[in-house]
Amino acid sequence: MYRIVFTQVLSRIDPEDIHHLTVGALRLLSATPVVRRLVHRRLAPRDPALRVRAFGVHFPSPFGLAAGFDKDARCVEAMSALGFGHVEVGTITAHAQPGNARPRLFRLVRERAVINRMGFNNAGAAAAAKALGRTRGVPVVVGVNIGKTKVVPESQAADDYVTSAKELAPLADYLVVNVSSPNTPGLRDLQAVELLRPLLRAVKEVADGTPRRTPLLVKIAPDLADEDVDAVADLALELDLDGVIATNTTISRKDVSSTETGGLSGRPLKARSLEVLRRLRARVGDRLVLVSVGGVEGVDDVWERLLAGATLVQGYTGMIYEGPLWAWRINRDLSRRLRRHGVADVRQIIGRTAG
Ligand SMILES: Cc1cc2nc3c(=O)[nH]c(=O)nc-3n(C[C@H](O)[C@H](O)[C@H](O)COP(=O)(O)O)c2cc1C
């Protein structure tokens, strides 16, 4: 059904307009508790076999929504009702900013991919804090992904992240330092260990200082050289971070016809995302929580990432092509597959094929 609507209608409309319409509808759903609870009852994961625990937080399913969809934390309740086991909001910057000029979001339908150069359009940390404050009391796991305000120079990046962390860490189930989006000039340079160490240390101090000690993760790019993936993994261990999210979008255009600038996500990212996950797992074993994201389309991908050592798996682009029942379907299929394999608990398969 969604496929027909997508081909006949949605694919002819500007993707960013559709995004805003969708978020508007989901905001409405979030703000309508009776309907939302009905949807939640039908679509949210309830199978105990899907439950995972990571960095002290309970997740109803390992599959969650990646950052970038709900940039301003406007519809977390609705996304949870649609079946996502967690919702990562953001990227949020200390100061509100408009992002890049439109058009900045492009569908590559044949390749089941998207290119975006949104540029962290968001209403800023204070507005996000307000929105997150409203979600209190709703049972949903919320990750908060923070990034650098565009106009802030690299030399003041740590302070800028700290401003966001102070505002948002107390409201987050986990906090993510995003140093990997390709659409903020210079951002990915912060992945160099000598720049990343002081930045992560400063944010960690804030995260450690919240009443519940907010878990802290770092999100990395697929375009890092393998040695740099290792170096960030080692740094995460050194600083006692809780995990690594791999990966963000890629600037590579291998096997893709479009030459639009920005970050590429979806199917063409799948192989590299999995490769980075395997490398991380080989490096850190189970000492860090690994969150795998990039090119996940269905239960086969989720299964593969879990086996390779991811405790949590995320997706975004898949939802554009699969529609609103995507997360529900993945959870249903994951439950079935566990049963078929005689596995009573999804945690038993995490890292099973890792060396
Ligand atoms: C339109 C769009 C906007 C995104 N914005 C962000 C963002 O603000 N912060 C971030 O960390 N990742 C962002 N991402 C990256 C996703 O979180 C994810 O890492 C990436 O898309 C790979 O997953 P996918 O192939 O399932 O989409 C964005 C992705 C898309 C498609």
TrEMBL record:
CDD domains: DHOD_2_like. InterPro entries: Aldolase_TIM, DHO_dehydrogenase, Dihydroorotate_DH_1_2, Dihydroorotate_DH_2, Dihydroorotate_DH_cat, Dihydroorotate_DH_CS. Pathway: Pyrimidine metabolism; UMP biosynthesis via de novo pathway; orotate from (S)-dihydroorotate (quinone route): step 1/1. One of its GO terms (cellular component) is cytoplasm. The active site is at S181 (nucleophile). It is a peripheral membrane protein. The keyword Flavoprotein applies. It catalyses: (S)-dihydroorotate + a quinone = orotate + a quinol. One of its GO terms (molecular function) is dihydroorotate dehydrogenase (quinone) activity. The keyword Ribosomal protein does not apply. It is found in: Cell membrane. Pfam families: DHO_dh. Its cofactor is FMN. It comes from the Bacteria. Transmembrane segments: none annotated. Monomer. Belongs to the dihydroorotate dehydrogenase family. Type 2 subfamily. This is Dihydroorotate dehydrogenase (quinone). It comes from Streptosporangium saharense.
